[in-house]
Amino acid sequence: MKPLATSSMYHSVGHSVFTYLEAMLTFEQQHIAAASEALKQCLNVCNRYRKKSTLTETIGKTFKKVNYDQYTDLEAHAELCSAEALLLKAMLTFIEDETLTSLIKGGMKIRNCFAMYKECNNILTHRQWESESSKLHFESGVRMGLGTFNLMISLLPARIIKLLEFIGFSGNKQSGMQDLITGSQSEGIRQVLCVMTLLGYNLIVCYVLSHKEGDLRFCDELLVKQLNQYPDGVWFLFFKGRLEFMKGNLDDALKCLRLNWRESLLFATYLVENSKWSRTIYTYQKASIMCMLKTEELHSSEIRTIATLMKEVPKYKQRIAGKSLPMEKFACKKTERFFAQQSFLYVPALELMFVWNLFKILGKHFHLADGVYRIVEENLNHYGERVNSKSNPAFGVYAADNKALLLLLKGACLRQMNSPLQATRCLEEVIALFKDIKEDHYLVPYAIVELALIYIDQGNKDQAILALEDAKKNYSGYSLESRLHFRIHTALMELKGKSYENIPSGAE
């Protein structure tokens, strides 16, 4: 791509996509700077080929219908490539520096980009194409762009969507999905990007931002075709692993949830040493896994390593667009607790699995949930013994926090094991501890949402809505709040039958 990136539009787009991916995957300053330069160059190349409008034509656009047949195929593609480069530039703006100005700039660029994609949709549908092949590739780009916008905006909580609609955005989930599916079935140049977006949505976004599963059968069909064509494609192999993980086929997914802490420690160490994406999270993850090993299983040097890792966690904390990452703040708070409790935390790796919404995978096979349940039960017994003996002077301060965490995890396990009555008892006990909890206030709204999911499973729609509204309106300022609000939003949308489907895709 690189040799022709200064003269050929598509080579320039391709080159900038690869430099952008490197920047996003490494977060290293030199790669961010290289991506920014490549995208700036790409926009310059695209501008050479874009249709030049006179002042009269620009004013006329406001008052009369545009004649899209005046665009050549090349000029049409220049609009599309500009929209793509502008979107990547906007996304890069959020990590280039931390000021409010950069946040506003990024938001404005995304808004302009959305307007460009809508204009490209008009070009697609309102002009006579010189070449069917040219139209095919153009359409796959329009489907990919508008589909991704519509899908992602529709996932946002209602108050944010209303604000975005006010400044010209719209989010139509059904239309977005249909655009992406159409794009994934075409032979256009961006077909593979449509496929990757659909896989990313169904295998990652659904699990992080909602209580629902992605369409695993659909993903299986997509991956069979893609791996047949690209057997060594690293992204498709990654998504295949993720698919098997979500099915609960842990051997096929590389032994992720088997509670083999020694083996997982090897991978956690590799991430700490080789990935700069979030050293804070990876360092805390490694320390958490080591905390899951029994004291008698640890060497004295490993006990010292846990303390060293916990001290290092806050050192790598990042600010993106002027804000700390919620998950990094969560990890830093937990390291403070570790030292306040005399170098001790209850089941920190299981807590991470829960907040990352991985407990739903436990429900795929009884033995998976049972393995986690046994660990939680063992720790609840340990908690009881420790409270009675009062062996730790600082322990009493966080007694309610620790008990609530263990009960929440137990309740979540029992829900996955189809024991709703026992699960409800545990979760109600968590909620009753609200006034006694010193720091981990997130446990109560998360417990209420777990209760709501039990009501949904039992077909008790009204009670589920009441619980979700309670968690949404009556609790705030806790760790990982926005993460839970996304899940509440998707659950309420489903229960109330409300959505933003009435906003037409590409509407003016």
Automatic annotation (TrEMBL):
What InterPro entries does the record point to?
Answer: IML2/TPR_39, TPR-like_helical_dom_sf
Identify the Pfam families for this entry: Iml2-TPR_39 (PF10300)
Coiled coil (residue ranges): none
Name of the protein described by the UniProt record: Tetratricopeptide repeat protein 39B
